[in-house]
Amino acid sequence: MTHTAPAPTQEPAAESRAARLITDGLEPKNWIIAVTLLTGWHADRFAGVGWGLLAALFCGVIPILFIKWGERRGHWGDRHVRRRQDRLLVIPGIMASVAVCITLMATLGAPREMIALIAAMLVTLVAILAITTLWKVSVHTAVSSGAIAMLALAYGPWALAAYPLVALVGWSRVALRDHTPAQVLVGTLLGALTATPVFMSIR
Fold first, then answer.
1. Is the pLDDT of residue 60 over 70?
2. Phosphatidic acid phosphatase type 2/haloperoxidase domain: from which residue to which, for each copy (predicted)?
């Protein structure tokens, strides 16, 4: 009789911990840093990695610092910015940083493939912002899906083998009750369908 009570509570706690690790480990910042460096390598090897570091700074690092700054001042809850209305403030700030990145790259003569990558990110952010005015679409799945789609265009279709990671990210967002299944699915489609044509048309 004494061994029956703990069982129902242990599994949800373990599931919650796993979902939190996935959400934090595969957050948008990490995808952005990875895709900028990998695309930079594809575009111009070591010189391209330099451009990738610049892109990672403006598209990944500065945005997360901006989010943490707002979190410390109580403007929004945490680095995942759970409340939809808070995202309407955060996303334009991120867009400004990404726009500065494109301007610098165009001015300094970055490889066209890198400019295409950052332009695709900016257009995706515009689409996310438009939807967020009405509905809380998943940024996690949009970024991860778009990143894999662009890597597949650069390196070949074998990169699509990473798509199960997007499903894993989506599961974690639903398990943590930060999004519904519909929101993670729409985010997945939005990321790929928005980033792909922009990247292809500019590169």
1. yes
2. 137-199
